[in-house]
Amino acid sequence: MTARVLDGKQLAQTMRVEIAAAVAARTAAGKRPPGLAVVLIGDNKASAAYVRNKQKGCAEVGMGSWLHHLPVHTSESHLLALLDTLNTDPAVHGILVQLPLPPQIREDAVIHAVGPRKDVDAFHPENVGLLAAGFPRFVPCTPHGVVHLLRRNDVPLAGREVVVVGRSNIVGKPLALLMMQKATTANPAGCDATVTVAHTRTPDLAAVCRRADVLVAAVGRAGLITPDMVKSGAAVVDVGTNPGAAGKLVGDVDPAVAGVAGALSPVPGGVGPMTITMLLANTLRAAELLDG
Ligand SMILES: Nc1nc(=O)c2c([nH]1)NC[C@@H]1CN(c3ccc(C(=O)N[C@@H](CCC(=O)O)C(=O)O)cc3)C=[N+]21
């Protein structure tokens, strides 16, 4: 068997066309174009590349975007002052502070300082709480991208065994919530799946993974998921973004898994482009919530 490719690049493009149409309709009605402010601190090469992709995405769908690129030694108070300004700027609907941050800046302080109505990452505790309770204001970008990628490729989720490997606040934990939640009008990203969350302290990870109809790897360890860990015909979603040889991006899934899986979302070209499209969707939603 060789797995069907879950093509995130193509689906991201299709969904950007839908978002662009909604943006155009707003502008035609005399509303402000949705605008995203991105804050990047320091010169991490991977971060700079992701930020460029985000700005390119905004331009593609007719949204405004501003990049605030601050030096690596920026103080926490300086960053918090900038966030205050962005929180009150009516042209800015979404704010994203690119992670990771340099050591003199506390991640927690920054997450609390982004106004929850402009928090398009959905990292603020108010938005985390709304998601956990089943009525999200913003659905976090990467988990939402995974759900759309599976849904729009007709991978069944309701009642199925989903194993999420990884328990981060950015991917594993919110994805497990969406997967276990009931699909409702307030929460259309709910999947009604049967969910197991595995992590570094899970004994016999391979045995847990082999139960999965849908296996999601979000750990950050290149090649962690090998063919022996995958049930024949399962759908496998690779969320890993590890630095590979020659500046190439590599996932958490060994490419040989394609010989066992029924469907596989690759790195690059899978979840990454979907993440950015969901960020654009959240920026549009922020504009709708703030401006009507
Ligand atoms: N506040 C914040 N929000 C984030 O959403 C956030 C963050 N910080 N810090 C870093 C991670 C990582 N992340 C990616 C987004 C897009 C791709 C992406 O577009 N990848 C492409 C190509 C990348 C390439 O080849 O260089 C792909 O997989 O095909 C990857 C990774 C967002 N993150």
From TrEMBL:
<keyword id="KW-0486">Methionine biosynthesis</keyword>
<dbReference type="InterPro" id="IPR020630">
    <property type="entry name" value="THF_DH/CycHdrlase_cat_dom"/>
</dbReference>
<dbReference type="InterPro" id="IPR020867">
    <property type="entry name" value="THF_DH/CycHdrlase_CS"/>
</dbReference>
<keyword id="KW-0028">Amino-acid biosynthesis</keyword>
<comment type="pathway">
    <text>One-carbon metabolism; tetrahydrofolate interconversion.</text>
</comment>
<protein>
    <recommendedName>
        <fullName>Bifunctional protein FolD</fullName>
        <ecNumber>1.5.1.5</ecNumber>
        <ecNumber>3.5.4.9</ecNumber>
    </recommendedName>
</protein>
<feature type="domain" description="Tetrahydrofolate dehydrogenase/cyclohydrolase NAD(P)-binding">
    <location>
        <begin position="140"/>
        <end position="288"/>
    </location>
</feature>
<keyword id="KW-0378">Hydrolase</keyword>
<dbReference type="Pfam" id="PF02882">
    <property type="entry name" value="THF_DHG_CYH_C"/>
</dbReference>
<keyword id="KW-0511">Multifunctional enzyme</keyword>
<comment type="subunit">
    <text>Homodimer.</text>
</comment>
<comment type="function">
    <text>Catalyzes the oxidation of 5,10-methylenetetrahydrofolate to 5,10-methenyltetrahydrofolate and then the hydrolysis of 5,10-methenyltetrahydrofolate to 10-formyltetrahydrofolate.</text>
</comment>
<dbReference type="InterPro" id="IPR020631">
    <property type="entry name" value="THF_DH/CycHdrlase_NAD-bd_dom"/>
</dbReference>
<dbReference type="Pfam" id="PF00763">
    <property type="entry name" value="THF_DHG_CYH"/>
</dbReference>
<dbReference type="InterPro" id="IPR046346">
    <property type="entry name" value="Aminoacid_DH-like_N_sf"/>
</dbReference>
<dbReference type="GO" id="GO:0009086">
    <property type="term" value="P:methionine biosynthetic process"/>
</dbReference>
<comment type="similarity">
    <text>Belongs to the tetrahydrofolate dehydrogenase/cyclohydrolase family.</text>
</comment>
<feature type="binding site">
    <location>
        <begin position="166"/>
        <end position="168"/>
    </location>
    <ligand>
        <name>NADP(+)</name>
    </ligand>
</feature>
<keyword id="KW-0521">NADP</keyword>
<feature type="binding site">
    <location>
        <position position="241"/>
    </location>
    <ligand>
        <name>NADP(+)</name>
    </ligand>
</feature>
<keyword id="KW-0560">Oxidoreductase</keyword>
<keyword id="KW-0368">Histidine biosynthesis</keyword>
<dbReference type="GO" id="GO:0000105">
    <property type="term" value="P:L-histidine biosynthetic process"/>
</dbReference>
<keyword id="KW-0658">Purine biosynthesis</keyword>
<dbReference type="InterPro" id="IPR036291">
    <property type="entry name" value="NAD(P)-bd_dom_sf"/>
</dbReference>
<dbReference type="InterPro" id="IPR000672">
    <property type="entry name" value="THF_DH/CycHdrlase"/>
</dbReference>
<feature type="domain" description="Tetrahydrofolate dehydrogenase/cyclohydrolase catalytic">
    <location>
        <begin position="6"/>
        <end position="121"/>
    </location>
</feature>
<dbReference type="GO" id="GO:0004488">
    <property type="term" value="F:methylenetetrahydrofolate dehydrogenase (NADP+) activity"/>
</dbReference>
<dbReference type="GO" id="GO:0005829">
    <property type="term" value="C:cytosol"/>
</dbReference>
<dbReference type="GO" id="GO:0004477">
    <property type="term" value="F:methenyltetrahydrofolate cyclohydrolase activity"/>
</dbReference>
<dbReference type="GO" id="GO:0006164">
    <property type="term" value="P:purine nucleotide biosynthetic process"/>
</dbReference>
<keyword id="KW-0554">One-carbon metabolism</keyword>
<dbReference type="GO" id="GO:0035999">
    <property type="term" value="P:tetrahydrofolate interconversion"/>
</dbReference>
